């Protein structure tokens, strides 16, 4: 984003000016899950504009995101559930996610991110995904509430599905980039609204909001299990989609080499 990079080299604008320029220069939201697309990115934009105004770095914003999320995860694992606990956990997770959306936007408004910063962001993302479900498992083992021992497999399954989906997205993105120069990208049309709605169960923001119910054990476990089941179905569907897409890219690459 070359135009945005001028902000870093010229007079540092105020919050409102920065926010206005960022709002006019957002990356496409096509296909992103609904909470992430329509709520979290907007929250992140406000945080990024404020961070730019005070001269904060993207890595510092990533650190704040990790601090909020780690605090929520520690509370889940260490504190016996009561009615108000879910409100606190959900608030911390939502704030952590908003700062997670802000670091990339801040990097772009400063003229572009770095490989080290992108690596740090992804490492924090996958770590929080793992630890969040581990914390749920620890809470159930320590404080009870599960309908039986077999239910402890649900957090383990949710952890597995989440990590496989995260790794798959990262790998597919890298494979797409590896052929971007030699094979023309297929044009995408529309707003991706259907894809956005289908991706709802995989939306980390929805998972964050589900923790509002954490103090009401039965309600939380129902919501958590439903999200896990839906997340699994989406993963199975997207694995098939990625396989077909990569096979098509292989065919186009082979045709380009023969031409």
TrEMBL record:
The chain crosses the membrane at residues 46-76, 82-102, 150-172, 193-216, 222-243. The keyword S-adenosyl-L-methionine does not apply. The keyword Transferase applies. InterPro entries: CDP-OH_P_trans, CDP-OH_PTrfase_TM_dom, CDP_ALCOHOL_P_TRANSF_CS. It comes from the Bacteria. PROSITE patterns: CDP_ALCOHOL_P_TRANSF. It holds the Pfam family CDP-OH_P_transf. Keywords: Membrane, Transferase, Transmembrane, Transmembrane helix. Belongs to the CDP-alcohol phosphatidyltransferase class-I family. This is CDP-alcohol phosphatidyltransferase. It comes from Homoserinibacter gongjuensis. The lineage of its organism: Bacteria, Bacillati, Actinomycetota, Actinomycetes, Micrococcales.
């Amino acid at each position: 984003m070359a135009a945005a990079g001028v902000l870093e080299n010229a007079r540092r604008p105020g919050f409102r000016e920065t926010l206005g320029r960022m709002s006019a220069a957002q990356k496409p939201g096509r296909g992103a899950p609904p909470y992430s697309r329509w709520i979290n990115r907007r929250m992140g934009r406000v945080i990024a504009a404020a961070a730019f105004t005070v001269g904060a770095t993207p890595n510092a914003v990533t650190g704040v995101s990790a601090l909020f999320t780690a605090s929520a995860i520690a509370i889940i694992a260490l504190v016996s559930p009561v009615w108000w606990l879910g409100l606190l956990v959900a608030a911390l997770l939502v704030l952590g996610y908003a700062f997670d959306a802000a670091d990339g936007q801040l990097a772009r408004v400063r003229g572009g991110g770095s490989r080290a910063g992108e690596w740090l962001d992804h490492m924090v993302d996958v770590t929080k995904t793992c630890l969040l479900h581990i914390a749920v498992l620890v809470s159930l083992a320590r404080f009870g509430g599960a309908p039986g021992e077999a239910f402890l497999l649900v957090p383990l399954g949710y952890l597995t599905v989440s990590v496989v989906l995260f790794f798959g997205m990262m790998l597919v993105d890298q494979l797409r980039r590896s052929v971007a120069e030699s094979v023309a990208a297929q044009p995408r049309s529309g707003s991706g609204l259907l894809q956005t709605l289908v991706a709802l169960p995989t939306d980390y923001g929805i998972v964050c909001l589900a923790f509002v119910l954490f103090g009401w054990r039965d309600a939380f476990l129902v919501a958590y299990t439903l999200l896990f089941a839906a997340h699994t179905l989406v993963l199975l569907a997207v694995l098939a989609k990625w396989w077909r897409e990569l096979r098509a890219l292989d065919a186009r690459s082979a045709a380009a080499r023969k031409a």
